[in-house]
Amino acid sequence: MFFASADRALASDGWNSCATAKRIGLAGLKCGARLLGLILLGGFLCATLVRSSPGYGVEEEELDSRLNAESVKALRDARSSEGSLAGFYVQYWKQMLHGDLGFSRSLQEPVGQLMRERAPGTFKSVGVGLVLGWALGLPLAIITVMGRSTAVDLGANLLASVTLCIPAGVMALLCVLWQVPGRLVLALVVFPKVFEYTRNLLLRSAAMPHVVTARAKGLGPLRILVWHVIPTAASPLLALGGISISVAFAAAIPVEVLCDVPGLGQLTWSAALSRDLNLLVLITLLISAITLLANSVAEMAGNREVTETA
Question: What is the Cα–Cα distance from 163 to 40, expressed in whole angstroms?
């Protein structure tokens, strides 16, 4: 009888494990399909906005008074080979699937080579900004919540409010004037969002009944934080991590332009000014993929934690 009960328990555990794995697999497939659809849609919207923008298809060469009408017509015919918007986008993906990322007309270089040269600098800037922003925002939020000091709370709120109100472009200009590395701006952009959200999240977690009970039993602040507060807030913090990546990438554009840092942000600005369609579409696809992938991983991690808890 004992062995029969053990067999039934093992069978039940195996069934639950299979069901959990199936749910996680289905969630992964749904996230993958949504990720692919949003990336395709983002690239198409980017191409639509660029093609519909005023002045698209007109270049400075046409304003040269030395060119006759036939030369101007030849230049326009050379640029009109893209065809319709839908035709261009389909042809663009066909070339991309064969490893051809296109050619940048404004910079006169292959798009793939430009991306290989500029992407590492942006990834490094974003990585440094995320690490410094979280390293400043998360501990400060923990100290504010667990320390319960009015002076610390006011000082942290003031610092977060000031950095939140100053635009990234203004902070980048200040870095240029003060000769400070521009990557610090990304940390100051990420910091207030991490601090505000994390502090509110920890305050809500610290007010939960099981945390109040643990505090009433005499548990120390560090033990309460590690075993009762942080586990409750882990899933939302993962989601915040995905959002902070998109925030850092968005702030990288003005920072790299104003601080003259060679990267994807500076490349995006140059491509936007010259309406370089091939370059803009690829940068949009890359940034969309990174942002959506980070958010999807955070969402799947949160769903998995909820499933295991249930």
Answer: 35
The neighbouring-strand residues paired with 104 are: 109
CATH homologous superfamily for the domain 2-56+101-309: MetI-like (1.10.3720.10)
Domain spans, the chain? 2-56+101-309
The DSSP result for 16-56, as a single string, is HHHHHHHHHHHHHHHHHHHHHHHHHHHHHHHHHHHHHSTTT
Q: What is the pLDDT of residues 243-259, one digit of tens each?
A: 898 889 889 988 999 88
pTM of the model: 0.79
pLDDT per residue over 39-74, tens digit each?
A: 888 888 888 888 887 767 666 666 666 777 777 677
